[in-house]
Amino acid sequence: MKFKIGELVVIGGIALFLLLVQVISLLLVPPLVGYDLRAFGNPESVWNPIYYVVFLLLFTVVMLVIIKYKVRWLMQAIMGVAILSTLTYVFFGIAVLVAPSADLVVVTAVSGLASILLAALIVFYPEWYVVDVVGVLVAAGASALFGVSLAIMPTLILLALLAVYDYIAVYRTKHMIRLAEGVMDLKIPIMFVMPRRWGYSFARAGGMQKEGEKEAYFMGLGDAVMPTMLAVSANAFLDVPRLLGFINVPALGSVAGTLVSYFALMYVVVKLKKPQAGLPFLCTGSIVGFLLGCLAAGVRPF
């Protein structure tokens, strides 16, 4: 199958966003671990992925009810708090990396202020490139926070569960598509937006096209967050030498596997011209790449 230039630009653009999420999330590992910022108290517990999935299901039900009854302000408030808090973690980690000796109160205040300013920019100027910049930061922050909170085995269990859930949610119940369509009009950074032509305006776009020729392609931030969590977990929990002091081989394998599976996913998306479940591809690629990385490094991950 031949790809059009616009499609190649879209595929390459979203691949760049995905790679940026992975790099930034790996950079955030030392400050998050250093300040013991974790989502779960015991990273080794195999119950953590169960809690995560249960919370995800409850959150999805709440969001679908909000969409059904069109309580727009409540949805904006919930998503706004989640985005603002995640951005604060990201800017805190970046500030610690840039100025490790800075006063903690100052770092926290600056991180909070930067998060508020960026969130305000989204509210008043929700163009696709602003949404994408914020989306990369939010996805990186979520990947890093949950990646350092889950050891290898819980992360693998979570990725397997989410791959199955995403398949059911997209192809069987189809509620994930309804959820995506329901939040499109909010113009908030919960997905990457990559236009196929110059002049496209996400701020003025009417909604997501289900089939046919598209003005832009979309990928949910979860499709970047979930597979990246394994790379972060590998870098945080495996006692393996790091290449250039940055990333170990199992984590690098996870990154590479995610990217390879992403290109396979986009081939299917472009060929069929309809939304596809991303996590069955991306989580599988991340896991296979991780295991190959462990094999190459001579490491037993369990």
Automatic annotation (TrEMBL):
Entry-linked SMART domains: PSN
Coiled coil: none
Membrane topology type: Multi-pass membrane protein
Gene Ontology cellular-component terms listed: endomembrane system; membrane
Subcellular location: Endomembrane system
Presence of keyword Transferase: no
Record flagged with keyword Membrane: yes
Transmembrane segments: 7-29, 49-67, 74-98, 104-125, 137-164, 216-238, 244-270, 277-299
Signal peptide range in chain numbering: none
Keywords attached to this entry: Membrane, Transmembrane, Transmembrane helix
GO MF annotation list: aspartic endopeptidase activity, intramembrane cleaving
This protein's name: Uncharacterized protein conserved in archaea
Species this chain originates from: Methanocella conradii (strain DSM 24694 / JCM 17849 / CGMCC 1.5162 / HZ254)
